[in-house]
Amino acid sequence: MRNQLELATSILGLLSVCLPACVGDAESQEEYVDEIAQEAFTKNAFTKNALKASALTTDRRATEALTGNPLTNDGIAGSSHVLSALRDPLAREFLTYVAGCALPAEQTVRVSLDGQEHVFKGDVGLAPEWGRAHGQCNARCQGWVSACMLARVNYLGESIPISMRGRNKALEADAAERESFPHREGAYFGDLFAPEPLRFACRSPGSTLISRVCGGTGVDASGCIIDVLGECDDLCGRPTADGSFPNCVGGGHTTPTTVTIFRQ
After folding, report:
1. Sign of the CA dihedral 47, 53, 58, 59?
2. What is the pLDDT of residues 40-70, one digit of tens each?
């Protein structure tokens, strides 16, 4: 599954060949494309501070209220614990990636807070059931959303194009995507909603690209915000047809909800 940077590129291409019948105000079109490109560009820059220290992870009542209620306008508005946590900018960043990983692109969550509206947009759609009426985020949902969020961490808070793959329909990659993103970085898995959050990764054999997440060279990951457990060949099942690693082991448990990252 490609991130939205490729979507922005496609839109730019379409506009460049647009017939006169679909040409409006040139400045408006440029602003629209810039908005989409910027949105896509910033969606893979989840910071380590928001991952570890946001009020949605340090306040257990807020965490349980978030996963125990629908990821919808009403679900958020109905929880005083979540609303209180969202006054923390790091919590708003955390929820940005929660919504982006869990909800499909056509769905958004709008939250009014202290007279200001905050919009959290869907993107990947790994747990669409959470965004339905009476929805909750069960263990499977938490696993997929956590893996996706971990995969989008960037040590410097900078966004780069990535391809996310795994055993979820939302992560299916076509031949063109596989060709454009041939370099396997590693796999990510865990549970960011647990009382003691689990943040795991493994490296693709011979890969040092995990420096995107850990900083430095990526070889010495001792100070990484994510626990890099070793090489994926030793921790996961045999790679699937798209090259993704399933069923990785961390914390004494085998995790079927694993996201593998490929780079250009």
Report:
1. negative
2. 333 689 999 999 999 999 999 999 999 999 9
Contacts of 213 (CB under 8 A, 6+ apart): 150, 153, 154, 155, 201, 224, 225, 226
- What whole-number distance in Å separates Cα of residue 145 and Cα of residue 128? 11
Structural tokens at position 167: 């055993």
CA distance 264 to 255: 26
- Looking at residue 116, what DSSP letter applies? E
| Sheet strands (E) in 122-235 | 163-165, 183-191, 198-203, 227-231
For helices 139-151 and 89-102, the axis angle rounded to 10 degrees is: 110
* Phi, psi for 134 (deg, rounded to 5): 65, 15
Q: Whole-angstrom Cα distance, residue 257 to residue 47?
A: 22
Closest by alpha carbon to 110, among 77, 70, 63, 69? 77
pLDDT tens readout for residues 125-178? 999 999 999 999 999 999 999 999 999 999 888 888 999 999 999 999 999 999
Which residue in 144, 166, 127 sits closest to 262, CA to CA?
Answer: 166
